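Please, structure for the following, as tokens.
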Amino acid sequence: MNTHICRRAAVAAAASVALAVSLTACGDSDEGDGRPGGSAKGYAVKIGLLLPENQTARYEKFDKPLIEKEVAKLTRGRGEVVYANAKQNAATQSAQVDAMITNKVNALIIDAVDSKAIAESVKKAKAAGIPVIAYDRLAEGPIDAYTSFDNEDVGRVQGKALLDALGDKAKDGQIVMMNGSVTDPNAKGFKTGAHSVLDGKVTVGREYDTVEWKPENAHTNMTAALTALGKGKIVGVYSANDGMAGGIITALKAAGVSPLPPVTGQDAELAAVQRIVAGEQFMTVYKRYAPEAAAAAEMAVNLAVGEKIDGIVNQLVDSPTSRDVRSVLVPGTALTRDNVRSTVVVDGVWTVSEICTEKLRAACAEIGLT
């Protein structure tokens, strides 16, 4: 079964959750009785948050603090987020779920290291009466809800941007595709979306599924592709995320490739935005983490106190083990040199001073980022 088949939920009004979060069917009083069934805004919920790794900057810098902030807001400061990071180890994450069950959290938000391996842990949590929200990656098992980005759309955005950058060169050379880890179901969505745009328009000379999304593995793969295809034959590189894009660009430079071919990315990491400003990376997909985190926090708090979440969701999604999972999917935006200010700067993700180091001052001035 396709892990990312989406259908519109019946309640269309819920789509606005990406911009505004308010607890539905909960009292407006600042007071809560501290018991399930009381006002969710005043209930001292304990929300478990399990994130998969800390190599990607977004999890510690954005997702964790955003979820903590939303839970605090929704519970009038009485909610607690119990946090753990698996550092890319599925066994560690399973042990962390066990610890959360022992700690008697009221709801659990899980960004799975391995979507299949986490299924048994999800079953354990459910057996303990703990609702589970799959965050960012569609975990298997009896999950109650899911929030992420529209992964196939992200792949389509990347693929279209690469084609736009290539222009007439698309038919003259070959591209390398650097997909994400097979243990991450999101990677499949990005790959499917990218292929839907690229197939028939370009020749894919080499394609890799990169173990654990590691930049060093992408570097190794890119070096192998350069050896196999020849550095003069590669006109572009599809990279599923920014970390791998960094490894790819390092490999291209080491091989003496100049000018660099257009390279895609995802996550709008600071280093990637700086590479885009410098003209080394063509684009990244900027994903607004705030609406994703807000949706996860609201669903977790509501489920923790037995409230409904139907008015929050905007999609129904199938996983290999669950049908019609109530979900919130958020769209992504292509970020290039043309819109750095109107995306990550305006939204407060990165400041001009953070982006425009001394080395990049001239490049920043060139695009009006001063």
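The domain at 151-286+334-366 is CATH 3.40.50.2300 (Rossmann fold). The CA atoms of residues 177 and 207 lie 5 Å apart.
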